[in-house]
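Thread: assembly with ligand

MN 10:42: here's the input set. Chains plus the small molecule as SMILES. Want everything predicted jointly, not piecewise.
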Amino acid sequence: MDILRQQATDSVGEGTGFKPFWNETPIKTYLFDAFSILLPAGEQFVISVVESAALRLPQTSTLANDSRRFVAEERAHQRAHRLYNQQLEKQGFEISQYELAIAKDLDTLQSKWSPAAQVALAAAFEHITAVVSQVALRNGGLLSAEPSTQTRLWRWHCQEEVAHQHVTTDLLRALKIPYWQRIGCYLAASTLLTFDVLRHMRGFARLDVARGRVSATQVRRSTARLLLHDGTNLLAMSVGWAGYFLPLKARIPNCQ
Ligand SMILES: [Fe+2]
Ligand SMILES: [Fe+2]
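BT 11:07: finished. Tokens for the full assembly:
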């Protein structure tokens, strides 16, 4: 809650913790800011899917309890990232139009996809989020070690993502979602997330270059540095991403 309060009280260019390029370079800052745009709507989708799925479980089961805790954590993340995104909006980025478009797409999807497909998609989003979180948190990872409002928020969020990722995987097992559906939704989620994150990063960079906040050369250099100097991080992310294609391990006991 300290993170939420601090995020709420800091304002752009003011406060002790807020820095425009808080994550070492423009491109690494854009990467996390781009993810943040997706989170309020994305987490709403995951919350509603997990809540509905958990209703099909015995209410005193471990997995039902884990699902309730999962939902409470995601609601806290959602509140924090709404505030985070408001700060981005104050910097001049048109965040709310992106957020509305994502929420609309997910609403449409939820009205058309079966409950099983929605669980598979939610699990896919959660796996990708946990993989990115692990790489963000590792020593020399994608998240700057320099303390700031943003790094504190992301560290808290990433730690909870890694810790609760098993919930949606346990739901896949409990609801007997077939492999083909799990992988089909994973490929769809990976494509959607990659497209949206790159689109938002491009939007940030274009606006910042146009208003002279950063030069095009600086953006290119920081992109090259990300690709060359963060090779281990990118490799770790690829390995974590590919791990989803393995069959799920046997179901943990005491899940129902
Ligand atoms: Fe979250
Ligand atoms: Fe999560």
